[in-house]
Amino acid sequence: MAYCITLRSKSETKVTGWYAGSSCRWSTDHKRRKLFDEIRDASSVCHELRALCPRNAELINIEAARHDFSLEVTPPACDRGPLRRH
């Protein structure tokens, strides 16, 4: 399982940014997020980010990286071909 570091909104609790690992640190594009294979690797980076931003520390979290299907266009069901059962 892959992990990522997120920054959530105070008011809406939705993800507003992902740790990108670059010089700018944060990105609003989920495709630029840095993925960690091990939670312990993400934990050390998360601890450093919380220390740099103590006012927002509770909003910086490690989460399981999941694919957000709402950001993509999926083809209609009729374009996927017939459903086959074996």
Question: What labels describe this entry?
Answer:
alpha+beta
Description:
16% of the residues lie in helices and 21% in strands. Strands 3-2-1-4 form a four-stranded antiparallel β-sheet, with helices on one face. It has one helix and four strands; from the N terminus they run E-E-E-H-E. It has a domain at 3-62. The model is unreliable at 69-86 (pLDDT under 50). The protein has 86 residues and is α+β, with helices and mostly antiparallel strands.
Separation of the first and last Cα atoms = 30 Å
Kindly estimate the percentage of residues that lie in beta strands according to DSSP: 15-25%
- Summed over residues and divided by their number, the pLDDT gives a mean of 80
Task: Tell me roughly what share of residues is in helical segments.
Answer: 10-25%
- Radius of gyration, taken over Cα atoms and rounded to an integer in Å: 17 Å
Number of strands: 4
SSE pattern: EEEHE
Biggest sheet strand order reads 3-2-1-4
Task: Please give the count of helices.
Answer: 1
Uncertain segments are 69-86
The description of the largest β-sheet is: 4 strands, antiparallel
Fold blueprint:
Elements: E1 3-8, E2 15-19, E3 26-27, H1 39-52, E4 60-64
Antiparallel strand pairs: 1-2, 1-4, 2-3
In short:
The chain has 86 residues and is an alpha+beta fold. The protein is 16% helix and 21% strand.
